[in-house]
Structure formats: structure tokens, C-alpha cells
Amino acid sequence: MASRANLSDIAKALGVSVATVSNAMSGKGRVSKELGRAIREKAKELGYVPSLAGRALSTGRSHVLGLVLADIGHPLFPQFAQAIEHAASEAGYGVLIGDSRGDIEAQSRAINRLIERGADGIVVVPRHGTCIADIGRPVAVIDSPSTPGNTVAADHRNGGLEMGRHLLELGHRSVAIIGLHSDSNVQNDRIAGIREAFAGKGEARLIWIGEMERSHGSGCPLGLVGLVEEGVTAFAAVSDLHALRAITELQQGGVSIPDDVSVTGFDDLIWAGVIAPSLTTMRMDMERIAEIAIADLISQIDQGGARDASSDLPALKGQSSIPMELIIRQSSGPVLGRAAPGDRTSVHRWPASSSATDPV
Amino acid sequence: MASRANLSDIAKALGVSVATVSNAMSGKGRVSKELGRAIREKAKELGYVPSLAGRALSTGRSHVLGLVLADIGHPLFPQFAQAIEHAASEAGYGVLIGDSRGDIEAQSRAINRLIERGADGIVVVPRHGTCIADIGRPVAVIDSPSTPGNTVAADHRNGGLEMGRHLLELGHRSVAIIGLHSDSNVQNDRIAGIREAFAGKGEARLIWIGEMERSHGSGCPLGLVGLVEEGVTAFAAVSDLHALRAITELQQGGVSIPDDVSVTGFDDLIWAGVIAPSLTTMRMDMERIAEIAIADLISQIDQGGARDASSDLPALKGQSSIPMELIIRQSSGPVLGRAAPGDRTSVHRWPASSSATDPV
DNA sequence: CTGAAAGCGCTTACAG
DNA sequence: CTGAAAGCGCTTACAG
Q1: Per-residue model confidence (pLDDT) at position B127
Q2: Is residue A223 part of a domain?
């Protein structure tokens, strides 16, 4: 088998010009129906696969997008990657990954590497506490609606609000919110939402894990059992990772969930449905977020270059804040376990199984 | 600012030919020292960034690799992605991601898409129960040393052996191994290793979660507490995901870890160091695996095309099976808690903190 | 509706 | 050591 067929092979085989073949394949220039059909047939017959390199060189578009996360080791990366890959792929784009391993300045280097590699645009999920400078190339930022320059994001604040309301409805009046970094817009929005829900209706205190670890060492106990003794009946973590830490610390300390206290998380990370009790959490609509990010990016690309303030996509107006979905599982129940047996919330609105998720 | 400078701009600015500029930049053709220096200087001055598209078109190499996992939603994906991205990037290659969402036949489609996108080669972590057909392009398979066609993998069997020995040393004589899919080579190797360790020294029974879920529904309790009553003192899961499920189910059932039983996992997934008690696990050397996979791939690419049986890389001979690292944390302790206080193993050989891993 | 021609930016023999 | 020329595969005005 010779090397891959190209336009010229098709043209020769049919005695037409490559321009016509190109037109027929792209459907751009006018080509007669019959010729078009014949060309496409011959193309298929020869197993023609267009050369992206050739196309890229002549059009100046690589049809490749970059995806940059501060740290692709983060458990949320799979969700982003999957959604972005899917949306990009639907739109005819490939996705190149970039990693900065959590390092702040490596973030810009990662972005630049992808640009040098010819990415037409970049989707970036910035590290907490950073924002993205103009890189002279289309960018879609996924961070938080409250972040300046944000393109699209989940409505974290409203997610927090709903989570807070969920806990209030269960009868909780004293919640401890568990956060990690106080410079994270996402976390702050979630926390603000939870607090807003509790305002005037109960007490909400806040624990920053990051600070505790700074003074007590990393991996230190969070002292949650003590809080329970002080009357806290619910723990609302801003990430399932911290919720998991809370659940296991409480269980280890002999606190029963959800009989004694409720625990909730955010993000519906992989283990949320797998642990016992399964974890009530709040999920981003990644598909939708990815779709919008990609659509925005492509629109910028098609307009040729960085988007200026005036060229916002009308279609995206007011849509940059995507509702989150509350997923109620077993870890949150009526306060103090006074509910009748069988009354405990255990709605599985999301498959609670590990069997679908273990490919290797 | 005009569009990016190219070789021709540099050539013009210096009154030399583009061929010479190209030679100087690539260091290939002979170019006088002074001219070379002048050219590189001018290139820097003009902010020259080579066009990958142009290079790709003329050399037929895109310098892009594809990374295909059956399901990039899997919690192991971040480790793979990070390591592969790093190794590839060091070697001057970009990484395009492909996803088949766990679907078997979508796996080949994902591979083909990446090839059509021009990937010079593909790293694939195949879904359990599948193998990779010849795709007429360099491939590096990361699965299990026992998989035919495997390029590089962790030594899962020996990992299992060491894990089994670890439990034996702690005094355990009755272990329940927790697996998911019986058609996974990786899992079978790990299980075989654990069993080998226990052979003649204790009892090892085997639980397949997949089968339990098929008959009792997904997310069903695994009945681990019952096993404890039957005398099982250790649970060795073949993945941290299942270990987590075991830990929480046991804790919820009032079984104390590691006082009553030990639990161990595999893969050192993100939560292993975060939960309480932190999880003893067995980690793959992803950096090394990625390095070898990438080196093999590039060597195949440089030899131009699919690797035939005779052209094995001498450097890689016998290195395709990479040792795993046992990470002892709190979840595994001396059997029956008979140890003196303070005698409990709680060596943190791996940072047990969530604070480094929450970028958003 | 169809085709000849130029050009995208680079590399690579081949001359000089 | 240096350069003129052809070519990688495609697209895009522009003629016909």
C-alpha cells in the first residue's frame, strides 16, 4: 500500500483539477452534482484522508484547541477533559493538553507552548488566585461568573445557595462550611451562596483547611468531631475531596452519617456515588459549559483573532452562568436522625456504582 | 504588530537565503558560526516561532502524539495524562487526547480520529478485555506485562505480591481480595500476586464487585462486615476506588480500621492520602512508564512507520515491567490491633494532604 | 461549472 | 559554506 491518497491522486484518477476536487470535498466552490458525487466516490474508494497539515498551512488554522488546567492531576480534570474533548471533537477540533503542575507561572508557559504548537485557541481553567493575561489568541476562561474575563462557568453561588437551602430543609440550623483556599473565586462563590441561604435562619461557620494545615501540618485532623459536640449538625464542603475527608474523619470518630450529622460536597467527583454513605453533592453541567466555551472559542477564531469587547457572541449573552444540579444521596439526611425509618432521603439521582468506571 | 515572522522574513532582513536560515535554525546543514549566530539573533529579535504546520507538511511529521484511554473520566487518567504530557513535552511532542467514553468500539474510532488528525503515534491504555489491532502507525500500549503486545507497564503481579507480603507481615492470615472485572489483565495480575503471597501461608478469597452488582444491583453493599465476622482481617482491593468503598462500608458498619481490619488499595489515587485513616496503596511509577512509552513511540516514528518484531529497542529490552512502590499509610496495621500503642504503622511516605491539589 | 496558478512556511537534496 | 529550486497537500481568488 502506497502512502495516503491526496487530492492530486483523486484529480488524476478522474482527469480533473485538484481545485475542483478540493471544491467538491469542501462543498464550497460550485461543482456540478455529478462531478461532485464522482469525486467523493473516488475519494472514498482511494481511502482519501485530508491532510490537516496541508490545510493548516494554507488556511492558517490548525483546527486544534489547547486545554490548560493549572493542574491536570486534579480529580476534576477528567470531567473537564471529557466534556471539552467531546465538544471540540463535535466541532471538528482536536484537543491538545497543557499542564502547569499547579505552578502559577508555569501556567503561562503551558499556554504559550500550546500556542507555539499552533493551537487556534485555548480553553483555560485558571488556578485559583490567578487571571489570564491577553495572549493574542482566542481564549475561553472557565472559572467563576464573578471572575473578570470569565467566559462561562457554573453558577457556583447559586449552587451554594441551593445546597444551603437543602440543608435548611432538612432541619439543619448549624453548618460548618469547609473550604481550602480563600483566594479561590469558585470556592468563595460557593461559600457565599451557602451563607446567604443560612443568613437569618441559622448559623454558618467557616473552616479553611489550607490555614489549618499551615499551622498544624498537612494531613492534620480537622477537629470535626469537636464541632459536632459544639452543636454543628451539617458539614458543607466546597469540594467532594474535602467532603470525603470530613466523612472519613467523622466516621472514624464514631459519628454516624447521616444519623448524627449530614455531609455534603461539590462537583460529583468519581467517588461520590461509591462511598458509604454515598455523598450528596452539586454537579456542574460540564457538557453545557464545554459546549459554550468551545462555541465561543470557535466564534472568536472565525472572526480572526482576539475578541474585542464589542464582539460578544449574542448567542452567549447571559448564558455564561450555568445552573448546577443538586444530587441528593445518602450523606445528607434529616437533622438528628429523628425521622421515621425509611424516611431518610436516599434518592439516587445519579448512578451510584463504581462498575462503569474502571476501564483497566 | 504584523503576523508572525517566518524564515523568509529573517532571510530578507539578513540578505541570505531561507535555506540557510533553515539550516542555521535546525543546526543541520553546515553554516558558518558567525552567520549562524547572526541568524539566531535576528530570529529572536523578530520573535520568530517556527510554523509547525509548515514543518509538518514538508517533513510528514506532526510532532503530535495521541493519548487514548478507554475512559478519560477514570480517576487514573490524571496520572497518565500528566506523566505522558510531561514526557512528550520534553521530547518536543504535543499530546492530543482521545476518549471513547468506555465504549469498546469507540476505542478504535478514537484512535482513528487521532490518526486522521495527524498524530505521529498513539499511546493507548486499552480498556480491560480489549487489545489493540495494528493501526498502521506507531503505537505504545500500556496495559500489563502479561498482555500480548504490551509496550510498557507496571509490574502489577509483583505489586500484588508485595502487597500480599505486607499484609502477611502484619500478621494477617485471611484476606479478601476485591476486584471488579475478571477480564482485566491488570486486575488479574494484581490478584495473582496477592494470592501467590498468601499461598500456603493464609487464606485468600476473592470478591468480584462486577458480578455482585450484576445480581444485586449497582451500588449494592458488598457485605464486608459479614466477612469480618467470618474471620477476614484484611481487605486488599485492586484499586483505591474499591478500597474507598470498602473503608466507608466498614466504617459505617462500625468496623474500625486499622484496629479491627486492614484495608489496602492500588494506584495511589488522589484521595488515598486524604481520607481517615489514610490508605495504604501501591503506586505505579508513571513518570518512568510514560518516559519509556514515549521513547518507544518516538523511536518507532524515527524508524518510519510501524515497528516490526525485529526492531525492538535495545534500550527498552527487559524494562517493560516497571516496579511499583508500596506506600504504607494508616489503613493497614498489625492484625487485631494487638500491637502496643504507638506501634501502629503510620509512616507517611507520601504527602497526605489535599491542600496541594485543589487548583480551582 | 471548471481549471491554472500562486501561495501557506518549511525542508531537503543538489549545485555552486 | 551558501543558495536556487522543488515539493509537502491544501485553499483561494481569479479567469475562462
Answers
A1: 87
A2: yes
Chain B residues near residue A113 by CB distance under 8 angstroms: 89, 94
**Residue numbers of chain B with a pLDDT score lower than 70:** 1-3, 304-319, 336-360
Is residue B163 a part of any domain in this protein? Answer: yes
Q: Identify, with chain letter, the residue nearest to nucleotide C11 (CA–C1').
A: B58
Residues B205 and B165 in one domain: yes
Nucleic strand C within 7 A of Cβ B35: no
pLDDT under 50: residue ranges of chain A: 1-2, 305-315, 317-318, 337-357
- B233 in a domain, yes or no? yes
Task: Extract the C-alpha cell encoding B160.
Answer: 500484588
pLDDT score, position A249: 96
How far apart are alpha carbons A272 and A357 in whole angstroms?
13
The nearest alpha carbon in chain B to A103 belongs to: B359
Pair (B26, B80) in one structural domain: no
Q: What pLDDT shows up at residue B83?
A: 96
Q: What is the pLDDT of residue A101?
A: 83
**What does the pLDDT read at residue B347?**
36
What's the N-to-C CA distance of chain A in angstroms? 34
Q: What is the pLDDT of residue B273?
A: 94
Q: Phi and psi for A234 in degrees, rounded to 5?
A: -145, 140
Examine the domain organization and report whether A261 and A204 are in the same domain.
Answer: yes
> Which residue, chain included where needed, has cell 507480603?
B165
Instruction: Compare CB distances from A72 to B64, B82, B273 and report the shortest one's residue.
Output: B82
Provide the strand spans (E) within chain A. Answer: 64-69, 94-99, 121-125, 139-141, 153-154, 174-179, 203-208, 234-237, 262-264, 281-283, 321-322, 325-327
- Residue B103: the pLDDT is 83
Q: How far is CA A238 from CA A207, A265, B193, B356, in A?
A: 11, 6, 39, 15
Q: Are residues B217 and B334 in the same domain?
A: yes
d(CA B10, CA B12): 5
pTM: 0.89
Q: Which CATH number goes with the domain that contains A166?
A: 3.40.50.2300
Report the alpha-carbon distance of residue A101 to residue B208 in Å, rounded: 36
Give ∠ CA A338-A344-A348 in degrees, rounded to 5.
160
A36 in a structural domain: yes
Contact at CB, A359 and B74, closer than 8 angstroms: yes
Which residues neighbour A341 within 8 Å (Cβ) at sequence distance 6 or greater? Answer: none
Q: How many residues does chain A have?
A: 360
Give the gap in angstroms from C-alpha A173 to the nearest C-alpha of chain B: 25
pLDDT tens-digit map of B207-256: 999 999 999 988 889 999 999 999 999 999 999 999 999 999 999 999 99
* Interface A-B: count of C-beta contacts within 8 A: 263
Same domain, residue pair A108 and A127: yes
Pairing of strands A174-179, A325-327: unpaired
Whether B122 and B212 map to the same domain: the answer is: no
For residues B199 and B252, state if they share a domain.
Answer: yes
Taking CA–CA distances from B182, the nearest residue in chain A reads A360
- Same domain as A198, residue A169: yes
Question: Can you give the residue range of the structural domain that contains B230?
Answer: 156-283+325-355
Nearest nucleotide, CA A5 to C1': D9
CB contact under 8 A, A97 and B81: yes
- The total of structural domains in chain A comes to 3
| A348 contact residues in B (CB cutoff 8 A) | 219
